[in-house]
Amino acid sequence: MAILAAQNIHIEFQDKTILDNINVLFPENKITAILGPNGCGKSTLLRIIAGLQHHYKGEVLLNNKNLTEFSSKSIARKIAVLPQSISVPADMTVEQVVAYGRFPYRSVFHGNRQEDKMVIAWAMEQADIINLKGRQLTTLSGGERQRAWIAMALCQQPEILLLDEPTTYLDIAHQLEIMQIIAMLNEKQNMTVVMVLHDINHARLYADNVVVMKQCGIFAQGKPKQILSPELLEQVFNVKAFVYSNTDTAVADIVFPVGLMDK
Amino acid sequence: MENTHNNKWRMVILLGLLFLLIASFGISLSQGAVHITPKEIWQIFSGGTGANSQIMLNIRLPRTILTVLVGMNLAVSGAILQAIMRNPLADPHIIGISSGAGIAGIFIIIILPQYSFLIPPAAFIGAMLAALCIYVLAWKNGIKPLRVILAGVAVSSFIGAGISALLILYSDKVHGALMWMVGGFAARSWSHVELILPYTIAGLLLGLLFTRHLNVLQLGDEIAKGLGMNVEFIRILLTAIAALLAASAVSVAGLLGFVGLIIPHTVRLLIGSDYRFLLPGSILLGGSVVTLSDTFARCAFAPLELPVGIFMAVLGAPFFLFLLRREL
User: Residue A206 in contact with residue A187, Cβ under 8 Å?
Assistant: First the structure.
């Protein structure tokens, strides 16, 4: 059970405002998608709620307690975060990298190897990566590698999972594969998920809640089907779009962007 | 299964490196201006007072122990720097940490020769200052491997200019400083062993305690922070350990280059970049290679003795190019 909320967040880099007066609550046990144009501050917001970014005004509350009051290791046991791109030494195997997710549970002298082993096996099973555990990470495809990183994050046994564009660079099948693993973790393990996404339809299909950002602030938030409308896409992305209703199946309606708005 | 198999294989290689170290130690003891047979060595160590026992106990044994310790120090220093600077070319010599220690040492040799006991602490301060300069120059929203090496080269040549200036300004005292700078073990005695030993023990133990941190740091700062590591603190701590190891090696053996580059990479090729194995492997191979090199340097052109620093550079420069072609 973990509640994450950001209150009055304001941050600047070199006199340029990146986030201005952000107030957002990430509902417990739900999937929240953060959408918005490039450079609107999505990734910075994710880094702030992950406790990776310092020197901002306002506060992030984890279970009604300021995030700065937690030690970095105790944050890592509650919140796992996957950045956009991760560099990896040439000869590391999947199992080795996944095991690094146990880092916050160990100190220089202490560690529970038996428990670590069980959690590592569980995490690799959840991310469907067990058959690849002896492979070197550099030899994997993009989708397989992303699943390995997810398994590493799961080794932290987090209550909250934060992902920055988890499907970037993947083909449509592997995008859906990652989204399904995330949905399964939310449903079966009750994990709260917050992820930055670019695909409007992924947000409509998989998120319970969306936060739309524009120019350093929050433009709208709520249920995806209600707020992800052609009007919103026009106002936020300057894009012309149509909604196609799917009458045959239970699958949600599809939003299709067809072109830029006229200048 | 595969991983446990790999770990067994790594243990076998570590065992092999241990034997190599023991063999190097024996070869170094027996070879030299006077050849001492293994049988004689055995007699000397079991209390005999043969003709060669003075040579063995006062010259060859301390020198051999010293080469082992210096090799271990430089190899582990390089291995640590490669992880925390996220650059395969990081080596205390190349990026100027050894030069920082060197200029402090030369300053004392030339200007304050009566305070030679101050060389190790001065060298450590010089090494830390050089490391600090590299970080300040390379820091821009985090550590980028390329900027580290460029900043290191800049710091290294800047300090190199300072060393040259000192040598020219005090050209009458240049010989001692020059011999020290090239890197070598000529005329080293037990006092040098006593000087470096505490630093070696402390540095290696601390390094081995932080192998998991070194592993995680290889994945980048973002991941390390996300896993709950206090990256800034750990990086400063590990830099201090690396600087301590390099500075104490420089204090007794001068500017011995390339050990910190060649050894960790050779071990990496053998057993991979998992620091739980890489660090012990570097300790063992570092001790062996410097000991063998020194043995070669003093025997190959006998009675003339080459400073081992020259020999290491001949070995190291092509290896550096090999790495450039392979990894960058």
Answer: no
